[in-house]
């Protein structure tokens, strides 16, 4: 049976989660001296590497909703700082793929890997049913927030 207390607890938990994400992002920006989009790109690049996927600047632009020019500026900045490199795309010679070049002991790699490990560790503690429920709830939340933001902007 649904109760108001359950709704309040769920909303409070969402706010707590959002606050933790913002705090982690703020700490990463401060400790690494990078902007929010720079960190988002490094996350995408390191996640793609960990999952064995190729990532192009077009993928980043699509994911972040940034223009091609803005994405190029971010990638240029991160490449100049030694955080990533461009290589020819083996599947499409017209494009490049991005790979992280941070050493294993670099502060950026340690921070990003630590963040990923904490998430993985938390998910590993869940039962298969809880993992499915979490995935479904977060997917629905993301879709709801994205649709709501688009509607608010165009209103």
TrEMBL record:
Annotated stretches, region: Disordered: 82-118
Residues covered by the HTH marR-type domain: 1-143
Domain of life assignment: Bacteria
Database matches in Gene3D superfamilies: Winged helix-like DNA-binding domain superfamily/Winged helix DNA-binding domain (1.10.10.10)
Protein name from the UniProt record: HTH marR-type domain-containing protein
